[in-house]
Design brief:
The chain is of the alpha+beta class. About 40% of the residues lie in helices and about 10% in strands. It contains 6 helices and 4 strands. The strands form 2 sheets. A two-stranded antiparallel ribbon has the order 1-2. Helix 2 crosses helix 5. The model has no long low-confidence stretch (mean pLDDT about 80).
Length: about 160
């Protein structure tokens, strides 16, 4: 069930892109997605300084992308996890970027992160598909259409047209 109480405003993806484009945020979210959730583990996996990691984790938690819970009663040590709303957007984004990087890597030492679809229990290579014909969607087969607001000229510029063959 999505947590619609997230404080992140994803208007046109701008805030999400701003959050993950910060130097360390995408890497932190990726590591948490792949199961590295404790502060010390994140610090070692990323090679990041403790003060920067603390600041980034606090920021991602404030944005509603991460939750933290204490896992030791005697020390303030925390474990981080993606929130439900973050999983809705971050997981597909991380899967897409990871797959793209693995496909286009130029070196031979790439790490493959297999993914399992928990609904059917099988390994999967997720992809974006059309909701109408269920065919894979690729950049060359997708373009925006004009809205009434675009047609009225309120957003500036002409409405996009389909590429001609």
């Amino acid at each position: 069930m999505p947590d619609h109480g997230s404080r992140v405003n994803f208007q046109h993806g701008q805030e999400f892109l701003a959050a993950i484009s910060e130097r360390w945020n995408y890497q932190i979210l990726r590591e948490v997605f792949f199961g590295v959730g404790r502060f010390g583990e994140l610090k070692r996996a990323l090679g990041i300084s403790a003060n920067i990691l603390t600041a980034r984790l606090n920021s991602l938690t404030e944005l509603g992308l991460l939750t933290k819970r204490a896992y030791r009663p005697d020390k303030p040590w925390y474990e981080y996890a993606l929130t439900d709303s973050a999983r809705e957007l971050v997981v597909p984004a991380i899967a897409a970027v990871t797959r793209w990087a693995e496909t286009h890597a130029t070196d031979t030492d790439t790490t493959d992160y297999p993914l399992m679809h928990t609904t059917c229990g099988n390994p999967t290579n997720p992809y974006l598909a059309c909701s109408s014909c269920h065919q894979p969607v690729e950049a060359s087969t997708l373009h925006p259409t004009a809205t009434e607001e675009d047609s009225a000229g309120r957003r500036g510029g002409p409405a996009p047209t389909a590429p001609s063959d």
